Amino acid sequence: MTASATWRRWLPYVGVLTVAAYCLAPFYWMLVSSLRRTSDIFDNSLLPSRVSFENYRSLLNASQGFTRALLNSLIVAGITTALALLLATFTAYAMARLEFRFKRLILTLIIATSMFPVVSIVVPLLKLFTDIGWINTYQSMIVPSMSFALPLAVWNLTTFFRQMPDELEHAAMIDGCTRGQAFRKVIIPLAAPGIFTTAIITFIAAWNEFLIALTMTNKPQMQTAPVAISKFTGATTYETPFGSQMAAGVLVTIPLVIMVLLFQRRIVAGLTAGAAK
Amino acid sequence: MADIKIPPEPSTDEPHLATGRRSPVSGRRSAAPATEGSGRMAALLVSPTLLVLTIVVLYPTLVALDDSLYGTKGLDPKTGFISDTEPFVGLKNYADIFGAAGDRFWNAFWNTTFFTVVTVGLETVIGVAMALIMHKAFSGRAMIRASILIPWAVPTAISGLLWRWIFNSNGVANALIGHQILWTTEGFHSKVAVIVAEVWKTAPFIGLLVLAGLQVISKEVYEAARLDGASATLQFWHITLPLVKPALLVAMLFRCMDALRMFDLPYILIGAQKNSVETLSMLAQNEASNVRFGPASAYSVLLFLYVFLVALAFVRLLGADLVGDDGKAKPARKRRKTTFSRRTEVTA
To answer: N or C, fewer C-beta in 10 Å, chain A?
Structure first.
């Protein structure tokens, strides 16, 4: 009886630890492996026998071109996010605040595009971009990325705008603002947290994109970080540089992990807002 | 308010400001009938998005449909020179999948279907379990929420590399199970590797969405059930599951759509052109990068149709269930509540 009572008391903690271990163990393994020396990379101990930054040093060496890949990722994901947010803010405002014909249909269509298989647009666009000489350019990655970034941003922002009380604008408009001014001076500042959360979620989606970047580039200096890492190869096929790959993985993931840790509450709210309606 | 000296605004803002100024009251929500001004303003606000989506989604889809009717350009094996014209072949690219050349397509089709069914099934079970644990946990919520977001934030391409390292022949997975399995070579085990990696990354996402659904169920419902003598298992099947079903179905729909277009993970974890794990997305991309645009377009059109049909089935199922739930769940809840209040009266 007492044993089962103790068990019951500790069960939630065991559960929490199990979930946390499930989520974190593989990530931890990436971190640990990245800190091992090449000579003991196959060592399976939980802590590196000697912490070494050898992998990071060789990775950030200019000749590897990895810093360039990180910069490419930043440019592509950054511009995609900025464009998507700019367009989505106006559209989401109309979706949340205005009454017009076909509103439901249009919103459904926009959301439906976010479920679209990316490869269906990548194939024709590859042909098109080859013809107009866009291969290995930033726009060849940014334009197709809008296909998933824009619907994602519209959907997230619509839910955020809907949560804001109507009275705010009404008050501003009674005070003499036009709708445009009310939008710019009242709604936008107040919706800033929502816009910010949407920006993070969109940025993460764009940063993680692989298929478009892989298809639209073949020059190493134009590849984004995920593509560049997937192409790291050792001297022979039997000598995959796992240490460098793990270090690169950590570097690509760390910005996202920091964002997640800082804004976890908001991100969870943003992710679940759409589903819970 | 000086609204003349505005810092340079994006051009889309100007016309909508102008319309707003002309009829300030136009778009109030309380004014039920859509006024002309509100309609015009909405058109101005919505059209840039629709225009972009037309260019990046609708137009390529139509081009793909057209491309799928053409064959491959002739390739001169001696010079490597590609002749400029693609012969019109009609529906041959589609007909080919039922012929001898269709093996690769059907293999990819079954791989895609298998991955979708198995991963979404496992993710749902694990995700719901995670959500229940998180819902019960009173301490360590922040920690668990942060850790559950990590797999979601790790780029799929990176998780592919990470799992390839874990599933290396001398890696930690083999050390843990004490067998030497060459996970990343052709065979069923490579499917297992892809499924494990995919489930790791996405089960927490389902957990998160289900948790949001769990948090809106009122405690009273459970209290009433407990007073009626319902066991924990019974409560789960008859209260929790029906009430989180809408949230769960939405999560599963998202995951299915995502799994059907799976590309990054098998591509990096196992590699391109591996029969055991080649999905429809990988097949179409591979054909396209080998300048075989005709078949590639045909495959991508078929994948699009497949995704569309699954989504349609889900929405039908979802819609039907939402209506069904509203009809059934509410009276049941009320009945329980009344039983509950009657009992309190008795005890009082």
So the answer is: N
